[in-house]
Amino acid sequence: MLIYLHIPFCHRVCPYCSFYKHTPGATPIGTFVDALVAETKQRLAQTAEAPRTIYLGGGTPSMLSPSLLSRLFAGLHTSIDFSKLDEVTLEANPATFDAAKARLFRELGVTRVSLGIQSFTPHVLEILGREHSVEQASEAVAILRAAGIPSINIDLMFSIPGQSKADWEATLRHAIALRPDHISAYNLTYEEDTAFFESLRRGEMRENEDHDAEFFHLADELLSAAGFDHYETSNYAQPGHHSTHNRGYWRGEDYLGLGPSAVSTLGGTRWKNIPDTARYVAQVQSVGHALSESETLDAEARRLERIALGLRTCDGIPLDLLAPEARQRAAHFAAEGLARIADDRLILIHHGRALVDPIAAELV
Questions:
Q1: How many CB atoms lie within 10 A of CB 201?
Q2: Average of pLDDT values for 259-271?
């Protein structure tokens, strides 16, 4: 089982981000941390399976003060045996930690830090509303390395308004030169309830699939040449640094989501927590959980998810997940050079990897 903890606080809200997040407000962060620890304890007491990974996402988990980070992890240690975990990931903004705080990450048991950098081009960072500079982003990698963090990821984004192909290439080369263990390269998507989506709706921004594909293939070319394994549509890793937590998601493993708006899927049941921090705290304090909605996933729903997620990975999907007519379409994709079939599995290759969503739609 995988555990995800959602920390919703950010110093500022980026215009492209659709995750539940907000600046610190009326709810004291310490009170929230106590509620998160309480929910973790309650949920794990009801679950027979022991966790094998923890992922702290947000929001910006790294903006928690050293004392609150220590308080959070001390609480987690009372419910979880960290010695049996394969991976503990913390998302971090380069502007929210220094060398002392990075050392604390390691002392608390963090084995992997995912840096939300997005770009190494100043004007692109400004468009994205990021609070860190290029210099801070570069220094953050060195700080984490000096602190002994075993695995460091850099998150990057492409097809950003105002970003040229030269900008994207320069960002990729800058990232490679920093020698991280993992790089995630995400295509910007315009999600509802974001400022970017409203700009798209008004015609101030535009999507361009050809542009997206060009940027995608440039990342694949440069990162693969630098020794990174392109093991999932948006993810590249040096040997031994694939994200265990994220691979679990893509393989359809059970996961427990804790914190406001977090989603869980256990034993065929999926539920979501209240997407409101104050109400989340109040409900955890009163009943021990913050469930707001749930559904039962039948076998067909799980099959469709396994196809959509599995096609994103270098492992592909078993052919027996596909209906007979879908297997014929899979053979057609292989004949066109978009996929290969090996050991009764369908694996997307070359240009097929950039077309994962429309291909998946043809197979479900």
A1: 11
A2: 95
Residue 117 exposed, middle or buried by CB count within 10 Å (0-12, 13-18, 19+): buried
Cα–Cα dist 362/308, whole Å: 10
Q: Is-cis flag, bond preceding 288, omega within 30?
A: no
At 286-309, the pLDDT tens digits run 999 999 999 999 999 999 999 999
Strands 182-187, 339-342: pairing is: unpaired
What is this structure's pTM? 0.95
Enter the DSSP assignment of 94: G
> DSSP H helical segments within the chain, as ranges?
29-45, 66-77, 99-108, 122-128, 134-146, 165-177, 195-201, 209-225, 244-250, 277-287, 299-310, 324-335, 351-354, 356-363
Task: Tell me how far apart the alpha carbons of residues 105 and 94 are, in angstroms, rounded to a whole number.
Answer: 14
- Cβ-based neighbours of 37, under 8 Å, separated by 6 or more: 71, 72, 75, 76, 78, 79
